[in-house]
Write a structure and sequence with these properties.
- By secondary structure, the protein is an all-alpha fold.
- Helix content is 51%, strand content 0%.
- The protein has eight helices and no strands.
- It is elongated and about 70 Å long.
Length: 178
């Protein structure tokens, strides 16, 4: 091996060693009381476990960093990924979203899980508990869809309805007349 190649390799090795002195902050922010999805919605136990196993590492303040997060620049990449995941959807701040946004997020979750986009393909490679079977995927999709449909659209209907004073002539169209 030429001297130049040896120097380049030694320089790269030195740079990698130096990077190890710049570790990521692995401390999780404090989750606001009562805002967590599982605490607020109380899903069935199997769904709660699937959420913890396949979603919470990137989409909540309950991230458990793997050992390889201590190796830079891998740790920086993981930290950036977690920050991006929390920015897009944070189950630890679920009740901070308004009802419409929660419904939309639940619809997106159902769609992402159904289409196989979540969890990301690389995540189950190192997290065996996140390897979802077709049945588990279907269970999450069904649950997220039900969560999305459980929104109160009556408020939006009332807001868009023309303002009328209530009177005997006003009758619900859905109600049968006798």
């Amino acid at each position: 091996m030429s001297t130049l190649v040896k120097r380049i390799l030694l320089g790269l090795l030195g740079a990698l060693v130096a990077l190890q002195f710049f570790q990521i902050d692995k401390a999780n922010p404090t989750a606001p009381n009562g805002q967590d999805l599982i605490a607020a919605v109380q899903p069935p136990q199997d769904v709660a476990q699937l959420l913890k196993d396949a979603c919470y590492d990137c989409h909540s303040y309950h991230t458990t960093y793997p050992w390889y997060a201590n190796i830079q620049p891998v740790g920086w990449w993981l930290k950036g990924h977690v920050n991006e995941g929390r920015e897009h959807l944070n189950f630890s701040a679920w009740t901070a979203y308004d009802a419409e946004k929660r419904a939309h997020k639940a619809e997106e979750c159902a769609e992402e899980v159904e289409e196989g986009h979540m969890p990301l393909k690389a995540y189950p490679l190192t997290h065996a508990e996140a390897r979802l079977t077709d049945e588990q995927r279907s269970r999450l999709v069904t649950w997220f869809s039900a969560l999305a449909d459980d929104r109160d659209i009556s408020k939006r209907i009332r807001e868009k309805a023309p303002k009328k004073s209530p009177g005997p002539e006003l009758q619900h169209q859905d109600m049968p007349t006798e």
